[in-house]
Write a structure and sequence with these properties.
- This protein has 785 residues and is of the alpha+beta class.
- Among the domains are: 150 residues; 160 residues, Orthogonal Bundle (GTPase Activation - p120GAP, domain 1); 104 residues, no CATH class.
- The chain contains 29 helices and eleven strands.
- The chain has a four-stranded antiparallel β-sheet. A three-stranded antiparallel β-sheet has the order 6-11-10.
- The longest helix has 57 residues.
């Protein structure tokens, strides 16, 4: 009302002056800078309209994460972002634990044979130290800035890491992979980092194809590149896919514990003899120790195998159908890697057939991603309990058959698998179509360019990274500097010279995480560049229009009751905000009201603002549906997070077993058992015997299967003793009997070897025990620390 008393001409002049002085928001600057570089998101053929679409698209992205609004959508997104961050952090912890377990597995033989020097034992022990999770810092501020500059460059220019990945040895790759996959590109659900990581993969794959001389070995050998691809599939999105797609089908299969689908003729023949002898109680007169070929010729073996082949093909067909039907759930990154494999194969081998190309794609998708989860579902936390022998063997055969289908070999290392060739022939067209369809995804280069500009406009880019990750990466870069940055004026070379010699690795307990601010000294921050719109072909009026729309969406999201009126009356919404009881809303309402008037005065919009009102309404509808999508994603990722945490607990229990075993190895003395009494050595070794009931071991999950009748289990107990460190005697007693009905000698190293080989169960004739839990029990009870 006050404005109407002013001089209209003066008011108009003031608004034009206000427009000339108008400063767009930082997001607007980033959007228009991207538009100035010609990022085409529209299809109109009009450069200005295309750039306008670029901005509109970017504003929608920003609206999804608007910090100035606190509605239900924002709260859900905040929860989702937190969940994704926790999954990323937990995935990194699991990768570190898995690497420690692999390292200790490789050293266990030396420990067993007592051929490890004291300093080597100390090195092994260091892998069992707890990591200091407190936040640390780099004391030298100049070096801290240089490292921030270095890691910004490594993150935003993936070519450096791609080159480094090809230069490091297999022994160095795991440490580098941890830093690359879980730190530099650790935010597994953030599009910019994901796209930069995929760009790095493209560089690595291109180099692998260029240097390859043998088509048959491409991507199949155990190289740093193949290890990198496998590690990528173990990130959060890949785990989500495996859990959603395979878990139910695998669990249904392992419920059928007695279903035996063995098709190896020799194994079937041997089992047949065993069954005959158990049934008759007499030795079987069939010849023993025969060859695979002789077993295959046996008519009874053929009769047993024939229906198994049909059932195995039926089960594998159901797995295949599930996988094909889930193509839209396959993570974008995995599909994009498939696309690169196809593209690079066509470029490097123009005469390659579709058959050859699909075998390479299948080699990645099935060999590196799907089949490991089918063969060892417990390692991927897809099952609640370890599969018993029959289902475990069936899962292995399913994976073999899927791999044969993907690779379509003309021969098989295992001749009996050729019996399943009808399945391969029947499904080869279907699998080829699926593998080609996997590659049908769009590129991300245009959106990545916008993401990069947005990142440059921010000042809070940072990395959560450990000291040893920094120092190890620095060391590897310096080691290969002549190849990575041969020219004096290379930015990477300049930074490495500034940093000098990398500090040595710190002890595990001192390996603190630090928050490293990222920045680039060679890029102009978009938010600080006032002349950035000069070449964008977009007017200040366009900028004002988009900022007005964004502010209007904020107001409607904060006051959702205003959106009920159809069509939206933007002036009325602005007035409602300007006269509300919320000071922030009042400021926004007054500001957007003036912006609407300015748009009218310069002719960008009419007095009803119908076009903008329609865009605001569409944005609100989109954001409303987005909330449902976010809630659905939260529900799915909560399951994944629980799975990853369960796997972390499993890995920690393995490390606890190793820790106790290392203590046992160092124990030197061993006094003999005094019958019926528990004895301890000076070093704290317990000799036993220690008594356990059947129900106690069953309750603790140590007894997995029992042949003891239910009504007799209460009369069964076990005595476990340790005559010397590392050796154990398990005796099974029946109440009232003086002598044990079963006695078994065990060596801890034998159990550890079974664990290393993935053998889950220990057969004691009357009961079957869980190997991992037995190791944990022995270490816990017989070495009092």
């Amino acid at each position: 009302m006050i404005e109407s008393r002013r001089d209209p001409n003066q008011l108009k002049a003031n608004r034009y002056q206000s427009l000339r002085n108008y400063q767009p928001s930082n997001i607007a600057k980033a959007a228009y800078k991207a538009a100035a570089f010609g990022v085409p998101l529209g299809n109109s053929g009009n450069a200005k309209i295309d750039k306008r679409y670029s901005v509109a698209s970017l504003w929608s992205m920003v609206a999804e994460n608007d910090v100035e609004v606190d509605d239900e959508l924002t709260k859900a997104q905040r929860k989702l972002r937190d969940l994704k961050a926790r999954i990323s952090a937990q995935s990194k912890r699991n990768f570190t634990l898995e690497r420690d377990v692999r390292y200790l597995d490789s050293r266990i033989a030396l420990l067993i044979q007592n051929r490890m020097a004291l300093d080597e034992q100390q090195e092994v022990a260091s892998h069992l130290d707890e990591i200091d999770n407190t936040v640390g810092t780099i004391p030298d501020d100049r070096k801290r800035q240089s490292y921030g500059n270095l890691f910004f460059m490594l993150q935003s220019e993936p070519k450096h890491i791609a080159s480094l990945a090809r230069l490091v040895s297999l022994s160095e790759i795991d440490t580098l992979l941890q830093t690359v996959m879980f730190t530099i590109y650790g935010n597994q659900y953030e599009s910019r980092e994901e796209h930069l990581l995929l760009t790095m993969f493209q560089n690595v794959l291109a180099a692998q194809f260029d240097s390859s001389t043998d088509f048959g070995s491409l991507l199949r050998a155990n190289t740093p590149v193949s290890r990198m691809m496998t590690t990528y599939t173990r990130r959060g999105p890949g785990q989500t896919y495996l859990k959603n797609v395979l878990s139910e089908r695998i669990n249904n299969l392992i419920d059928h514990k007695d279903l035996d689908l063995e098709i190896n003729p020799l194994k079937v023949y041997e089992q047949m003899i065993k069954d005959i002898e158990e049934e008759t109680g007499k030795p079987c007169d069939l010849p023993k120790g025969i060859t695979q070929e002789a077993a295959q010729e046996n008519a009874d073996v053929q009769a047993i195998i024939a229906p198994r082949l049909n059932m195995l093909m039926e089960i594998t067909g159901s797995f295949l159908s599930t996988i094909i039907a889930s193509i839209n759930q396959v993570p974008y990154g995995i599909r994009w890697i498939c696309k690169q494999i196809r593209s690079l194969t066509k470029r490097k081998y123009p005469d390659a057939t579709d058959f050859n190309i699909c075998s390479l794609i299948g080699g990645f998708f099935f060999l590196r991603f799907v089949n490991p989860a089918i063969v060892t579902p417990q390692a991927y936390m897809l099952v609640d309990s370890n599969p018993s022998p029959n289902p475990r063997r069936t899962l292995t055969l399913v994976a073999k058959l899927l791999q044969n289908l993907a690779n379509k070999p003309t021969y098989s290392k295992e001749g009996y698998m050729l019996s399943l060739n009808p399945f391969v022939e029947q499904n080869k067209t279907k699998i080829n179509k699926f593998l080609n369809d996997l590659c049908e995804v769009g590129d991300f280069y245009e959106s990545l360019e916008m993401d990069q500009y947005i990142a440059l406009s921010k000042k809070e880019l940072e990395l959560n990274i450990t000291l040893n990750e920094i120092y190890n990466t620095h060391s590897l870069l310096l080691q290969h500097a002549e190849v990575l940055c041969p020219n004096e004026d290379d930015h990477l070379n300049i930074i490495l010279k500034e940093l000098g010699t990398p500090p040595p690795q710190v002890p595990r307990k001192e390996n603190k995480s630090i928050i490293l601010p990222l920045f680039s000294r060679w890029e102009t921050l978009i938010a600080d560049n006032p002349s950035m719109l000069a070449d964008s072909q977009l007017t200040q009026g366009d900028v004002l229009y988009m900022d007005t729309k964004a502010l209007m969406v904020q107001i409607v999201r904060t006051m959702p009751s205003l959106a009920k009126e159809k069509p939206l009356n933007l002036k009325r919404i602005a007035e409602a905000a300007a006269t509300s009881h919320d000071a922030t809303l009042v400021r926004k309402g007054i500001k957007v009201r003036d912006m609407l008037f300015q748009l009218e005065e310069i002719g960008v919009s009419d007095s009803k603002h119908e076009f903008m009102a329609n865009e605001v309404a569409q944005e609100i509808i989109y954001l409303g549906s987005l909330k449902d999508k976010v809630m659905k994603e939260i529900k799915s990722l909560e399951v994944v997070f629980k799975t990853i945490c369960d796997h972390n607990n499993y890995l920690r229990s393995q490390l606890e077993s190793y820790k106790a075993y290392l203590q046992n190895v160092r124990t030197q003395s061993g006094t003999q058992v005094i019958k019926g009494k528990e004895k301890k050595s000076k070093q704290g070794h317990v000799f036993g015997p220690i008594k356990y009931t059947h129900s106690q071991l069953e309750k603790e999950g140590i007894i997995v299967e029992s042949n003891v009748p239910e009504n007799r289990r209460s009369n069964i107990f076990f005595n476990i003793s340790s005559p010397i460190p590392g050796s154990f005697v398990i005796e099974l007693y029946y109440k009232g009997r003086e002598k044990p009905i079963l006695e078994m000698d065990l060596k801890l190293d034998d159990l550890l070897e079974k664990q290393q080989m993935g053998i889950q169960l220990l057969d004691l004739e009357y009961v079957r025990l869980n190997v991992n839990r037995v190791i944990y029990l022995l270490n816990k009870q017989f070495l009092k620390r």
